[in-house]
Records
---
Amino acid sequence: MEGEQPNRPVFPARDGVEMPALVQAKDWSKTPLGAMDTWPPALRLSLDIVLSSGFPMALRWGPEFVLIYNDGYKPILGVKHPWALGLPAREVWAEVWDQIEPTHLAVLSGRQGAAFAEDLPLRLKRYGDEWDDGYFTFSYSPIPDPTAPSGVGGILITAVETTEAVKSKARASEERDRLWTLSEDMLARADYSGNMSAVNPAWTKVLGWSEHDLLTNPYADIINPEDVGATVAALQVMGATGQPTRFENRILSKDGVWKPIGWTVSPEPDGVNFIAVGRDLADYKAREAELLRTQEALRQSQKMEAIGQLTGGIAHDFNNMLAIVIGGIDLATRRLKRGEAGAEQMLEGAREGATRAATLTQRLLAFSRQSPLSPERLNINDIVAGMSDLLRRTLGEPVAFEAVLAGGLWRCSVDRAGLESAIINLALNARDAMPSGGKLTVETCNMFLDERYANRELGVAPGQYVMVAVTDVGVGMTQDVIEKAFDPFFTTKPVGKGTGLGLSMVYGFAKQSGGHVRIYSEAGRGTTVKIYLPRHFGSTEEEVVVTQAQSLNPTMGGETVLVVEDEEGVRRMSCEALKDLGYRVYEASSGEEALKVYDAVGTVDVVFTDIVMSGMTGREMADLLRQKTPGLKVLYTTGYTRNAVVHNGVLDHGVALLTKPFTIEDLALKLRAVLESA
């Protein structure tokens, strides 16, 4: 270009970049470097690199360390830019030159190669007369120049200001130190070999041990011996996986108390050490124990309230029934003494009252899931179809009945009498909910209850079920009534119209059968009660087909019966009843006496025995008799359900049971069934 010196280097201007133009325009002849056309090739090449870079870079050239820099370096200079361009570094950085000169001289002289300074603290005046404490990371690289006395013409410097990073790190460190000091959790740095290298003051506050005590002894010394194995195992797993872990153990305090500590432990990258955070759980466990005691007290209070409601209902109903029984017997006795007629009618009334009391007892047992069940493998469609005529007669003409039976219905293992009773109870409730008539539907279908449903309903296992639904179009229930519907003696019916045990019995039967029951209702629109019974996966060949029971002749007698009963009144009644039915009867008041009677008699056709007796139980006695006479027929009776022949609410296989109280007809039919069984 016209007017340019032929050896003068050219540094093209670029958009947004200031320094190439300033360097090009400066009169360098007035600086220690001299005119640009006299600059050695090493300086020109280095300067081209510096000005082309976006990274903060500078050249310090010659023995005066003349400063040339790029745009990235300008913020480091502050207000010293552009004054500093072309000046010796000792003038530009006069305030810190004593600190940085040795490195410059060592690199320029060739005594030292490249040098590096990280986070170097420098107190500068780069904003006028104000002092500014900054931190910088520098890289000093010698630039070879054959024309220089030492062979090094200058220094290429890359500079990064790290002031904010260093101050942030310092603040974080101060915060860590503050947390370390003030934390109520025990903090420690330890290694896998069993020693701690640092602990915070919380150790002394929680445990009483001094820092010296803790750092000069293995940490295993203060871990409860019963917890050492589990603690070491947890640390070993953490060391192998590199994943943090949590565990609890007991740590010995200086006053000899074992304190429960919950630990969160994280491994350090060196594979040797880990950081542990321990929290004293003593107060937490005390609060947890207090909460459990409070919850238990609340449960006990609720239980007593429920028992009070239950016993009140039982007392009310039993008093009514006993009034009928006692009054009927008393009137019959008076008429018999006077030789008047009508005693039989009074006794029939007493019998009716006693029967109602027995029914109430069975419903209570069903609600409490104590009623002994005798499950059979049934097709529930057969059950519903077989009950259709009975249900129509029970419901009466104003209520239309429909059975909707699913095809391919799965089999269930269920107590037939319990299911029939549940369906009848639901049908009667539905009838009462439709005082002006309506329609009742009994529906069956296969259902699958998934995990989501099971998690929503307490005590329900996911799986396949057979559903029996009873639906009416009656008055329905509000939500608060639904929530109490299964409570014993809860009823919305008028006084004298219901015991409040019907739905309770259904609930107990379903739960005892391993199933579930659910009410869906809307006030004014009707109610559906769904019973879910678990599907049976056994062979269909074992299925029991529901047919009309074979007619038995209860008065057919002649066989020999050994009656074993420790309650004298029950034993006398049983013996008289069996004699009246035509049986030959022997009696015993205990299992031990029964063995002697059996040996004296030689043999009997059947043993009718109570189960729960003082001394030897009826089951134990029967087992001993069967050792003498294999295949001996036994009919058990009991008023209890938790006994030797009922387990988990289900009657043992092959066991015949007649529950107390029973009628003479019940006894005759059950005993004849046992005698005629294979």
---
Amino acid sequence: MKSEIDLIDEMRKKTCCSNNCIGKILVHSILKCCEQCRELQIRCDQHVSHLHLVLLGHMNACLHDTEQTVRSKQKQTDRCRTRLNSTFHGMSVCTDAFHFLHDISRKVTRKLKVQFEKCGLEPKMHGNVAKPNSSLTSSFESRRSVVKFVENYALTNALVLPGRTAGAKNPDALLLPCGTTKRHVYQLYTKACGNDSFMSYSLFCETWQNFLPDITIQKPRTDLCATCRQDTISIQRLRSLDDTVRADLMNRSLKHLELVAGQREHYRTSIEFCRSTLPPDSILGEKIVEQYGISVVQHYSFDFAQQIFISNSSQQVGPLYFLVPYKLALFGIMCEPLGKMVIYVIPESVLVGKGANMVVSLLHHFLAKYSSGEQRVVLNADNCVGQNKNNTVLQYLMWRVTCGLNSHIELALMLAGHTKFGPDYGFGVFKRMYRHAEVNTVKDVCGLIERSKLLLAEPVGTEEGEVLIPCFDWQTKFASAGTISGIKKFHHFTFDSSMPGILSVKEYAKSNTVELQLDINAILSQSQALPATVVPEGLSLSQETGISVPQNSSICS
């Protein structure tokens, strides 16, 4: 490739005109002018070339555009066209030399001359500024259709976890599953629109980001599923694996995500079906069956939340940080079709554990007080074996069907690691208020819960140890009924009064049904009377006499 010096020497030898303008200029001056002009060939924020501004200034000084020509020895005549006298450092040069010195072509000079004759010194903007690329623009209707589509998709598939989204600036963000991609949502959008509307993928993502920043895809680090975590680590090493292992790994990961999507779809469709059976403007606790005389199906989800502490203040003084706080456990049952959730506030002095007895006792209290009088119930819970997925809970549900309290009960458990569902939303609403509130008693906590239209509060006891909602010993009541083997691998359990003693189980929502035989005689032998209550141990002596400070006691003095 020729160097700049070689090109200049070649131009000087060829001669630009009869006057040899290039030959009269020093090589150093030519090289410096060319380099400076190349540096000026950039566009500012207004998309105007700096070199063009220099050339327009030159035309303003050297362009002859008067009405009549200027001739020293001939008569002046009407001007037919403009004429440009090119100069360089005060010396007249020919057109070829001027173009070579400024590293431009005749086309640039011609267009700038037309621009100058029409608009004067007004700079010429890039053509794409006034005429944007059609692939990067769309009509208002197209953007609105994208916004509506993404909103509807999020309402169907996203999770709302206010106040519980790590790293999110907006606590009301809608979280799509981490297996979802924007490319997948874009493909669904183009398939739904067909030939009616088209938008590029980049503009689709830009519209999503600008108008729906609250709808985000859950980060893989927030997914606590062991299988997903292991697959993520393995996929990062795909390059080092052979084709067979790589294909097996991808198939296993896709199969797991399909199971997760199937369980989530079952959860969503169950809520929609139950909502369709309810009359409009229904209220939680209203006996719909007795009032309207219709058959309804109700859906409830229940779960424990992380315990909280009192006293709590958003402006906590330093010494209180070192004291032992009073613990409160939270248990929530949400009725998704009605958009209401009951949070049971369990003080430390009446808590008898978070096992099956407490779960069944609170669930029994809820169904007695807040049910709609329905005979068919769909329950959803997480996959915790100690609390929800155990023999006591299943025996209690069979007992309800056998005693005629319900005719049909279905218990569906979320897939381990993918257990974010309705109660998490309710707990998130409460935790967001709790962070900025000042609460000192159980009554204050219940009052804080009642501030939300979504939540209802049920205190299980008081700080002094008074029990308001007793915990029953259901495990002892059903001890003679034996155990159900192999329940850990199943996620769906169905009890029906038409099949007494038969427990229908499925591993996943789309799996085949398996029937298990239960000891119906042991269940029938149990009367409808409630079992004996479990007396809480209460607080220890050191907790009753006062809050102890084992270390740094001088701080609180």
---
Amino acid sequence: MHRTKLKSFCAMLCLVVAQGLLSPGGFARAAGRGELRLPNRSISVAAPKFSASQVRGLGRAVLDVKVDSFGPADIAVARSDFKLSAGGDMFGVRKWSAGRSRIKLGPGHSRRLRLTFAVPSAVLEEGALFYGPADGGASGVLPLDASPAFGDSASSAASTQATIKTFWITHGVGNPWGTEIDSAGNLWFAEPGCDFAPTCAAGAAPGQIVKLDPATGAFTYYTLPSIPGNQPIFVAFDGSGKLWFTTPNNSMIGEFDPSTGEFVGQWPVTAGSGPWDLIFANGQLWYTEHFVSAVGRFNPTTHVQQDFQTPTPNSNPYGIAASGALVWFTENNSSVDQVAVLDTSQNDAISEYPIVRPPSGTPHLIVVGANGDPWWTEGWSNTIATLDPAAATPGSCGSASGNCNGVQRVAVPDSSTCGASTHTSGIAYEPATDRAWFDNSLTGQVGSFTPSTATFAITTLSDCNAHPHDGLSLDSAGNVWFGEEFANAIGELSQSVGSPPAISSIPPAGLPPASTSAPRIRGTPRQAETLTALNGSWTNGPTTFSYRWQRCRPSCTNIPLATTGSFKLAVRDIDAKVRVVVIASNARGSAQASSRSLGPVGPSLKRVRRSLSRLLAASTNGWTITKLLKGDRFRRSFRAPSRGTVRIAWRARRVLIATADGRFAKGGAAKVTTRLTRAGKRLLGPANRLTIAAQAVFIPTRQPAVTRQKRFTVSRP
């Protein structure tokens, strides 16, 4: 591993730190489970609730958030302060319970807020709540508990005649991200050592810039200087062969000289802006500011930086590309869902183009096609898209629903191998064949789309959990290079006519696998649902994976016969937590790593509804007004479907007549006592006949509430 010589660089950097320029760019992480503590406030969040929808794969996610103010002055809390982040994408709040878009909290006060998002269910399994206050306070990231209680154009897919070669990264810090290819054909990539969601954990070790020589398969590693938040995410070459990179956690831009193997310097940009993707155009470095609503321009000679705010707020720009005087970028927030262009020949004016109505995408990375039109991936929408600016009007969709004028969106064919969750991520354009290349991080696929024939050619990797994400580049020979973030590897796809698809690899030498990030579980912890194991990240090139699912009550024991990559939850799993142990192996040995436990497992909706229906039948049948008034309370049997709470309410003529409230430490036989209210007795006393609406609600622990209702009539004998 190279040791860089940085005396002058360190002197400059120490001055930056001494002046306090780095600290505002840092991001707090959760202090404990479900809580984020910041200098004058704390944010806590309950387990998310999710209900599916048939609209383009999106569902309704609800987060109950509590904000506590404990500083010396009032704090402002705005709806736009909160976003869900997953896979680097941002989802804006569609609705919140505060009514006004902005509220104030005095010292010592708190407020509970209900936030509603439109997201795919996989977002809750992989995501985090990103908090960035508009009043200028400290920002932070709160990982979600992974227990979440469209395309418009026809397309066809063909299997590719491709060879995929895998280069295992044996000594890096892990999680390869953005890639670039130099003039000699070497692949360079950023390796942050963490999965940005949307930031890395405080105290994370510095990341690396890595070079891969395709001819020998050799990697050379260059570790960034040891300063807080120094994890690189994207890289880009300037005209003289210097490699530039962004570090979002500390909001800096850096320069590396491949000819000397030394870091030239790092310079702070706007604090808290989260510099993300970057590109060179006309001698200037342009970059997106993903944590705010701006793109930036950085002079590589003078190191002077300028921000350009997007006309639409809360846009969270992501990918960036350039062609001539035009700098294109995506506005990633799902509530904004636009592609935009900055025209350097028109006083850097920004024009924004809506993509679809209602907004439903998270536009991701972007490139410019052969005719100058932009192409981009759309993340969780599982689409790629292009814009003809001549047919579009900036700031106007031109349609009340569906694609906006000038926009073509194409749905990527579903995967039959790696599950239903999808996320189109990296993108590159090949002018020689006039086709767009892309990868899909959640289906483990790399493919191309040819606009002239409207056809796809897609290759599926051998590891569904490899997670090819934002690092996708084309070399001069037309080979496709991509980072496998969770497999800790680099892949090369080369086209070969007439040969069957093949997968080969250059294996690491001498070491068994080692885990660099823990396995995870995808799925909803509810009876009858199927969970899927995500392998996590490993070094030293594991060739096979095996699995052991465990049930935890609270100690974890192996579940008989549960040894595949997926597991269907059964009745016996209710109220327990589950985890998966992943065993990675290669020729040199094996190692294992465990996921966090997921749960507790809730009962199926069918099971809860059946229990509530029986309770309502038992508690409402056979009553007369006289019998009700004689006792004023009664007990009925109830088979609790799981640990949780049951509530019963009887109402008539807008009066609450009777209530019941029961808590259960576990599922099984129990008793529920219903009591008449004083108002109920007063209403029943003179009545001869009364129709009552009875409602029973069961709330499984950490699961959404389930409700059943029944109307019945009581009279005097």
